[in-house]
């Protein structure tokens, strides 16, 4: 396990390394490796097959944030006390992530133990998106509609990935542009609000491209995009992510508009709740879903459910039954001083189950939140109706109140259970200035507001004088 000490500029060396096909220290014949193509080979009149390869690689890279040990969702889940990650081989997953007394402070110390998928890997995906966009712009072998299709897809992934480091860095801000052609001339750090604005602009550009892409998407995507095979379908996916970003920006009207333009369906039922776009795992030559655990799994490497999730749950909530499994013997960890934990992560039935990128259930709750916040005309009534679509889908009775504050409280409660383990609760509590409501009595730790800027970024700015 590695501590993240590299910055985004150094991390993209993995991608940029394919730009160099031979060493110039001695004169030798250049050998082109067909299994390691140069970036110039795709930046100069790429073939449709090369664009397909870039999009396949981009979709694969988009999935790298789904990782148990270095996972953004694992870390944010611990920060939000949705879960704990029991890893017996490295105490940092308990002491640092829970922020026990005496551990490295997440907010102030650039050596805080946070692995690649909260910063490094998202920027690698961003750079691959930038490479794809460059290749599309510089080819004459695609129709204009095909170019728009590929560009719209790449821009949507780019925006989705930029949200991950922004969640971690928060008021530190992030860089939103590192040009692929000149990564050592990155854009400046953008504040949280500026970065959100940039991400929304990227999504809007992607939406415009998908709107100009014709009726057929000319490339192959994984099964995670089943039901989203046309540019119009992918535009709805783009707008779904735009709705998510809009509530972060507190642009409630835009959030409502984006849900209208997305694939949202205001219908009850488990299949409706799970309609969406997913990261796929196939085993064999592919990887397995790292968030699948066999019942009563080995507690050396395990996600367990924070006890408050059981304590605060409503009776007969099917989300609890679907996501949490009571172990035959409660799990313990040598670095965890709290009680043994009775329940483990059980959202997935197999190691090849898909992990959601964004689902209809989230969109319905985004709409409910935005309606309640806008509070015009029948907005509160419509917000309650949306909440009850979710509740009724999981066997719960109707929520009944037209008080704005009560509705917002209920939306946050529903998001806590509907979106458990998907990286939302810490962000939601921070958005509403409720980090002090996240319970720490079980573990004796603290809840950080954000993660310190990586040391590599600090070193880079000192080196360049920025």
TrEMBL record:
UniProt superkingdom: Bacteria
Localization, per the record, is:
Cell outer membrane
Q: Which residues form the signal peptide?
A: 1-22
Record has Signal as a keyword:
yes
Q: Does the keyword Transmembrane helix apply?
A: no
Question: Mind telling me which InterPro entries this protein's record contains?
Answer: SusD_RagB_dom, TPR-like_helical_dom_sf
The UniProt keyword set, sorted, is: Cell outer membrane, Membrane, Signal
Give the record's family classification. Belongs to the SusD family.
Q: Indicate what this protein is called per its UniProt record.
A: RagB/SusD family nutrient uptake outer membrane protein
Starting at the broadest rank, the lineage of the source organism is: Bacteria, Pseudomonadati, Balneolota, Balneolia, Balneolales
